[in-house]
Each structure stands twice: as C-alpha cells, then as structure tokens.
Amino acid sequence: MTTQASRDTASPPTAPIRRSAVARLIQRRPMASFFVIAYLGSWVLWLPYILGPDGLGLEPGIELPKLLGSTELAGVLPGAYAGPLGAAFLVTLVAGGGPALLRWRHRLNRWRVGVKWYLLALVGTPALLMLGTLPLPGVLDDVRAPGAAVVATYVAMLPLQIVTSGLAEEPGWRDFALPILQYRYGPLRGTGMLGVLWAIWHFPLFATRWSYMGDRVGRPEWYGTIAVFTVMCVMISFFITWVFNRTNESLPLAMMLHASVNNTASVLLFAIFPALPMDLGLLPALIAFTAVGLAVLVATRGGLGYRRPEVGPELSVRLLPGG
Asked: Roughly what angle, to the nearest 10 degrees, separates helices 220-246 and 251-263?
C-alpha cells in the first residue's frame, strides 16, 4: 500500500526531452541548415560595413575601428567567424551532439601530413600566383624583387591570415561541407557546388572596400568581377579538395592554402608586379588555379584523390540522411 508520505517523496516521472522545431529541422536538413546559418550569420553582421562609409555609404555615421590601418578586419571578421565557423559548430552540435562535435574538430589536429604538402601550401602557392601573373599584358614592364620590408610583412601577416580567413572559413567549407558534398555527389560535382556556394557567401562584400569595387555597384565591370571571382573560387576549390583528400582531410593544410592565397594576393603580388592594375588583381589566381585545377582533374580522372567512406555509426553528422 502506498502512503501519502511515500507519494510525496517519490521522484516524479521523467518527461521526454522535446527539441525545438528549429533543432528538429537542423537534424533533418544539416547541410541546408549549415549554408542558411552561414549566410545569415555573416551577412547580418556585415551590414554595418556594407552600409557604412567603407561600403554603400547609406549610413555615413557608422564608424568601425581601424585595425592594421584599415576597417576591413573589424568589418569582415565578426561575420566570417559567425558564418561558416559558427554554422558548422552549431549544426554539428545540434544534429550530432558532443561526439559528432569531437569528430568534426579532430581534423583540426591533423598536422602530420608530410613536408611536401607544407611546401606546396607555403611556397608552391605563392609561386603559382606569380606564374599566373606573367601572361597578363604589361606586367613584365616593371618587375621588382620584394624588399626586406615586404618579406617581413608577408611573414608576419601569414599567421594572421591563417587565424582569420583560414580559421573563420575552412572549418565550415572544407571540414563540414566538403565531406558531405563529396559523399553525396562525388568529388567533381560536390567540389563544384561548394566552390559556387563559397563564392556566393562573399557577394555582399563586393559592395565594400574589401573588393575595391564598392563605388561601382551595378556597373558592368562590377558584375564581371563577381563572375571572375566565382570561377576562381570553383577552380581553387578543386585544388584544395585534392590536397584535402590526399592529406587524410587535414584541415590545417586547407587553412594554410587559403591563407597563402590571400596573403600573396594582398602583400606580395602588387609589390613584385607594380604595373598590375588593381582591377585585374583576381586574374593571376584565376589563371593559376584554372591551370592547376584542370591538371588535377585530368590527372585524377575527376576523382581528386577521394575515397568514399563506408556508412557506419562511427561517422559524424556529415553522413546523416536528408541534409
């Protein structure tokens, strides 16, 4: 017989944990959720930069702090971290829980990949961009060896690029999205899709000083620059995918490749080729990585070094169905 006292001290039945509708949606569609959150997280936080004096000028009273002599870091970086990095963290945690989050983070520690891959990222990538500059008309009229100050700036800026553009973007694009897209669509289609989606994420920044095209919004050359940038992102993606697959999905290498491209373009390229017009600054990367991207596609017959994993419970959120 149950007494009143025993009823009072008995533990209440445990109610089932109810996940929110948003959490259930993320679990059902992790891939789509990642891109929606990445885009919205970045684009919303970029609004002060886009609307302020370094963008469209619609809100001239917006003042962003200058870091390293420019408002670019303050304008771009918060949105970059909240976008692909924040979206990958959130979707992985909600859809797969703590174990999936640990597996997602594990690739960040894959440093033991062979010296040749580090040389490719840190030396080969700048060399590729230099070679991609040579075919442009007039650039050979004025070629200069980089001075000590330029070299020092390049060396000092590389770690900053790794922890800004590399760390902000690659845990999302390559660590989270690429394995899913390769598994579902194959390396060729999956990488092509990621390259386009990666480019689209940058589009609002073309209305700011980030692209040097903020004062030309809506003009034909503005659209042309966006088109060139999109093709460039796709071709760079084929190269990064090949390196990522061949290094057992090493995220540090992907981050270094990304940072090396950005650092070379912003520090070395115009110092070595001062005759290169600013408006043509994307063409060296387009030429170089189109050649390299096509080469690795031909050499690997479109496989890009990819080995499709077996479906199993030990795999992370990237293999959840329906994303």
From this structure: 150
